[in-house]
Amino acid sequence: QVYVAESGGGSVQSGGSLRLSCEASGRITSIYDMAWYRQAPGKQRELVAQITNGGVTNYEDFVKGRFTISRDNAKKTVYLQMNTLKPEDTAKYYCHAQIVSGLRDFEVWGQGTLVNVSS
After folding, report:
1. What pLDDT digit, counting tens, does each position of 30-83 carry?
2. Which of 88, 103, 108, 113 could lock 6 by a disulfide, CB 3.0 to 4.6 Å apart?
């Protein structure tokens, strides 16, 4: 079994910052792309940012210039630094990873961590 677990959510005022972390664990052979998604109440889950195992990043337009995704391959961890937060960033943030375990590939989701931004 392989897992990912998020941490770092919380409540912050508009303009504030938070840093999310997501650590992969289990019988891991390698990790390919890692990504952050979010889902606001009553809305569909949407991609926020993604990063390849080589460090190439991609951001959705609504977070460009405010959020930064990074990863530490030795720690099997991906981060999301969120600055200049807005009330519309309020959502549950999910980590996703493409993990190889032995000869099998897995698409792994975490349980999510809540981010609440007040105005």
Report:
1. 999 999 999 999 999 999 999 999 999 999 999 999 999 999 999 999 999 999
2. 113
* DSSP, res 119: -
Task: Report the 10 Å Cβ neighbour count for 99.
Answer: 24
Residue 20: band (very low, low, confident or very high) from pLDDT cuts 50, 70, 90: very high
Residue 89 sits at φ, ψ, to 5 deg, of -85, -5
How far does Cα 15 stand from its chain's mean position? 20
Cα 119 to the center of its chain, rounded Å? 23
Q: What is the largest CA-CA distance in the chain?
A: 48
Give the integer Cα–Cα distance in Å for 39 and 47.
Answer: 9
